[in-house]
Specification:
seven-stranded mixed beta sheet, Rossmann fold, about 260 residues, alpha/beta, 12 strands
């Protein structure tokens, strides 16, 4: 699989996250909510955690943030709200009106934008957060990494959450509230799922890895934009919570991996 960042055009914004299943789950503050692949596999989305306050794993991310922080796909806003409450310069972006409304209700700044839209202060953000599986935005990790390289300042820091398994996959998925889709679903859209090793492959040559860690079963990697040399970050250890998982929807429904 190619690890080049070359892309003819950026992916179309994943507007499906504005669909009713996602918006309803955020308004309720709870699931169930899944990404459902065409072959029946499900990725459980931890809406309750997203709508709560930062946990230990989140705090390990917040502690590593530098300068102005852009939270890409901020969802209901727990991270940008925590940064803002601590006096940090932070902005959340999300394509979901429900997500932006939830974030601003917490007192944090947020805009309804795709990361591929023109953004405020492009090229001046010091940290970009891509948490809760958002490395999958657009289904093209190379294009997303290339875009984030332009959003960040030279030498800026990208902190991404990766899958807790060694995986590098693309899939057409739908948002559903019920495993079998009986509760309604959004339209299909492209998504990607990467483990840490796959992320590092896609990040060459424009990024350098500065840190990798896990907390409670959630995995993270910090990458620095190589536009300008920067002093390496000191290694940090962290304790080890599983936020997302692929699940078999029904016990009598066999599934094959992608």
């Amino acid at each position: 699989m190619s690890t080049s960042h070359e892309t003819a055009t950026p992916p179309a914004p994943v507007r499906c996250w504005s669909s009713e299943p996602y918006a309803d789950a955020l308004r309720d503050g709870r699931g169930p909510l899944y990404l459902r692949r065409g072959d029946g596999w499900l990725l459980h989305l931890d809406v309750e955690r997203w709508c709560g306050g930062p946990d230990e794993a989140d705090r390990s991310v917040l502690a590593r943030c530098e300068g102005p922080v852009l939270d890409v796909g901020c969802g209901p806003g727990r991270l940008v709200a925590a940064l803002s409450a601590g006096g940090r310069d932070a902005l959340g972006i999300d394509i979901s009106t429900a997500a932006v409304d939830h974030t601003t209700a917490l007192g944090a700044p947020a805009l309804r934008h795709s990361v591929f839209d023109p953004l405020p202060r492009e090229g001046r953000w010091r940290t970009a957060l891509v948490i809760d599986g958002n490395i999958g935005i657009g289904g093209d990790p190379g294009a997303l990494l290339e875009r984030l390289g332009g959003v960040l300042a030279p030498g800026g820091l990208l902190i991404a959450e990766t899958a807790p398994v060694d995986v590098d996959e693309r899939a057409e998925v739908r948002l559903v509230r019920d495993p079998d889709g009986s509760g309604g679903s959004g339209s299909a859209f492209p998504w990607a799922r990467l483990g840490t090793a796959a992320l590092l492959r896609h990040a060459r040559p424009g990024w350098s890895a500065t840190d990798q860690w896990s907390v409670g079963g959630r995995c993270f990697a910090a990458l620095r934009n190589r536009t300008r040399s920067a002093a390496p970050e000191r290694a940090k250890s962290a304790a080890v919570m599983s936020s997302q998982r692929w699940a078999k929807p029904l016990p009598d429904k066999p599934v094959t991996s992608a």
